[in-house]
């Protein structure tokens, strides 16, 4: 065995709330992210409720998905909401210019999105079109959704929904530095202020306005947005994908990879910590009270597409490696929970680092799904600061901490500890001092698998799934864990 890990959990000085919106999911009109994966419309061969597949909705309900971001992504930058309301037969058929050039039937629009939210039990986060839409179009969309009366409310009622919907969050464009208009930060800040000015909700309602934030390490973008547009904002986004093998364009194989690629991927994931630290520092300068939060509303792995799939559909298999990417990110968000109050993994179904993969009638849960399920107690829990002194794991030129972790006190009073061992070869002995916590019992679950690239397929859907974990003991304010290689462990202390 290698060098052990020592850690301290400071239950005696609780930190901020781990906002449940950190578990937001992202569903874009991209490949089979919506059509086929969620929406099957009138296809009776796949059991559905009002067009949405029952199997996928049930799996999402089991995750307690708090929020679904929709309709994009780059798709949002060209989306005209009026084309997605009214009788289905009359909705225009468009070309999805960003994703594969396929036809977009507009069968899923605003009403269907809110029906999906109802079925899943999630809240809305809509990204508006700054790219090629007008401030008037955006303002009218918000009014159509939220107004109790007026001609847009009448139109909504005529289209089947009399009551206004609840719209807690709205994105003022997406990636204004790229597919949202290729803007300079200064121009984007001005445009954001202009669009934001006209987003109005009825008296007594609130709307969290999320501006299009930086691409990875573009700190200047954050600086300019905060300097010029902070008053019109409640949150700023950050997009950072884990892109092994030299970055853009994505070229890493999702399944056939060796330990070097494993280490490369996880090292790239650790960069999230550095990025949030950097952007938070800039935000602190303009907003020391932390009124404006950072919404990491696109993150996850981005590999080369699965062989034989449309490259514009961003379909990729998901392995144990992705599970570790998820747990490391969720731990990093705990460390920064004072500033990060929302994140959205990309994407929910069939796209990039998905929770769920489907093919026709078939559905499979990915290793990433299981991490999200295991971390459910983190939703709206109180972060308990954790200091970790862990050895380095390295392979070739990729070096990173071997053990990642976070701890929370959930709303039911129980303490939960997440620990991930990134070293695929060695068990790590972890000793955790529990300051201010007298726990007598520990139980837990583990997610691991025989190989670093183990994954679930339609034929073998349970290769990677959580199992009971018995490698932890607690006594006298000390928790000891024999943390198996390449594993994610979640412990419950009482
Ligand atoms: O998630 C896929 C794409 O990545 C999104 O549409 C875009 O916002 C980002 O570049």
UniProtKB/TrEMBL annotation:
Gene Ontology MF: a single term: alpha-L-arabinofuranosidase activity
Q: TM segments?
A: none
Q: Which UniProt keywords apply?
A: Carbohydrate metabolism, Glycosidase, Hydrolase, Signal
Q: Which GO terms describe its biological process?
A: L-arabinose metabolic process; polysaccharide catabolic process
Domain Alpha-L-arabinofuranosidase C-terminal residue range list: 297-487
Q: Which domain of life is it from?
A: Bacteria
**EC number, UniProt record:** 3.2.1.55
Catalysis performed (reactions):
Hydrolysis of terminal non-reducing alpha-L-arabinofuranoside residues in alpha-L-arabinosides
Positions the record marks as coiled coil are none
What is the uppermost EC class here?
Answer: hydrolase
Task: Indicate whether Signal appears among the record's keywords.
Answer: yes
Q: Does the keyword Ligase apply?
A: no
Q: Which family does it belong to?
A: Belongs to the glycosyl hydrolase 51 family.
Q: What is the protein's quaternary organization?
A: Homohexamer; trimer of dimers.
The protein depicted here goes by the name non-reducing end alpha-L-arabinofuranosidase
Species this chain originates from: Sphingobium fuliginis (strain ATCC 27551)
């Amino acid at each position: 065995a290698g060098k052990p890990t020592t850690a301290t959990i400071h239950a005696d000085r609780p930190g901020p709330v781990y906002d449940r919106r950190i578990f937001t999911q992202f569903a874009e009109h991209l490949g089979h992210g919506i059509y086929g994966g969620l929406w099957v419309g009138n296809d009776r061969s796949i059991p559905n409720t009002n067009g949405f597949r029952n199997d996928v909705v049930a799996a999402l309900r089991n995750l307690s998905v708090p929020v679904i971001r929709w309709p994009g992504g780059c798709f949002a930058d060209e989306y005209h909401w009026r084309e997605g309301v009214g009788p289905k037969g009359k909705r225009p058929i468009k070309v999805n210019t960003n994703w594969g050039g396929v036809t977009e039937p507009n069968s899923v629009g605003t009403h269907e999105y809110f029906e999906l939210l109802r079925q899943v039990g999630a809240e809305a986060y809509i990204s508006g079109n700054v790219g090629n839409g007008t401030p008037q179009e955006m303002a009218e969309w918000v009014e159509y959704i939220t107004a109790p009366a007026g001609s847009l409310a009448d139109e909504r009622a005529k289209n089947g929904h009399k009551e206004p919907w609840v719209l807690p969050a709205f994105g003022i464009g997406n990636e204004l530095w790229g597919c949202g208009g290729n803007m300079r930060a200064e121009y984007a800040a001005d445009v954001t202020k202009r669009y934001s000015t006209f987003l109005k909700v009825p008296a007594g309602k609130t709307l969290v306005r999320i501006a299009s934030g930086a691409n990875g390490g573009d700190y200047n973008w954050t600086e300019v947005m905060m300097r010029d547009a902070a008053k019109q904002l409640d949150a700023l986004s950050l997009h950072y994908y884990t892109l092994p093998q030299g970055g853009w364009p994505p070229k890493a194989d999702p399944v056939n990879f060796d330990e070097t690629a494993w280490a490369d991927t996880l090292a790239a994931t650790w960069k999230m910590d550095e990025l949030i630290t950097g952007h938070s520092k800039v935000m602190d300068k303009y907003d020391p009270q932390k009124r404006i939060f950072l919404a990491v509303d696109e993150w996850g792995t981005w590999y080369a597409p699965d062989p034989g799939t449309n490259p514009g559909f961003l379909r990729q298999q998901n392995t144990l490696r992705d599970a570790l990417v998820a747990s490391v990110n969720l731990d990093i968000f705990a460390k920064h929970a004072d500033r990060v109050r929302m994140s959205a993994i990309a994407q929910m179904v069939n796209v990039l680092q998905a929770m769920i993969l489907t093919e026709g009638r078939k559905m499979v849960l990915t290793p990433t799904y299981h991490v999200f399920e295991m971390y459910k107690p983190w939703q709206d829990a109180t972060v308990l600061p954790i200091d970790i002194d862990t050895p380095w794991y390295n392979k070739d030129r990729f070096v990173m901490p071997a053990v990642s972790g976070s701890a929370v006190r959930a709303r039911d009073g129980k303490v939960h500890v997440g620990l991930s061992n990134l070293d695929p070869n060695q068990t790590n002995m972890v000793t955790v001092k529990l300051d201010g916590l007298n726990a007598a019992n520990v139980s837990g679950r583990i997610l691991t698998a025989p190989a670093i690239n183990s994954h679930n397929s339609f034929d073998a859907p349970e290769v990677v799934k959580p199992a009971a974990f018995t490698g932890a003991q607690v006594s006298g304010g000390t928790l000891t864990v024999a943390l198996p290689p390449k594993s994610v462990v979640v412990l419950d202390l009482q």
